[in-house]
Write a structure and sequence with these properties.
Layout (H helix, E strand, L loop, with lengths): L1 H6 L6 H25 L7 H19 L6 H26 L3 H10 L1 H21 L13
Length: 144
């Protein structure tokens, strides 16, 4: 069985690649906001960081739609992303106006934190689904 799996053609990696990229983009947004809150020199760029990160993530979601993610899951991801975007811009405004401590608190304990964890869990679910045998396609047997 293991020998047959090792000889099967590689599965389409598109879903995995896009899900990993979306997970990275999501983590980058959270880390960039946290960094801007900690480093006052980055504060003026907080809104631009949000705008760029959210635009990149929007493109990833659009591409995930073409890789077998169900419509309800994509809708859930889009809803989460919309909520995260709104909170991210609120946090960016707190950072820009010199309320970095409040911004960090909002990121760690508020709805932003819950939505960020939910988004991460959803993206990880897609990664696990991509790696499962049922997504790998049929196994070919090779005769010796």
């Amino acid at each position: 069985m293991e020998q047959a799996r090792s000889r099967q053609p590689p599965a389409d990696k598109s879903l995995r690649v896009e899900a990993e990229g979306a997970l990275r983009d999501h983590a980058d947004l959270v880390a960039s906001l946290r960094g801007a809150a900690i480093d006052s020199a980055s504060a003026p760029w907080a809104a631009e960081i949000c705008r760029m990160s959210c635009a990149t993530f929007d493109m990833r979601l659009a591409r995930l739609a073409t890789h077998g993610v169900s419509a309800p899951e994509l809708a859930r991801a889009a809803d989460l992303h919309t909520a995260l975007r709104e909170r991210a811009f609120e946090i960016a405004e707190l950072i820009r106006t010199g309320r970095a401590r409040r911004a960090l608190e909002a990121m760690e304990a508020g709805s932003f934190a819950r939505e960020a964890r939910s988004m991460e869990a959803l993206l990880r679910k897609w990664l696990v689904a991509e790696r499962s045998p049922c997504h790998a396609g049929p196994t070919r047997t090779v005769e010796a």
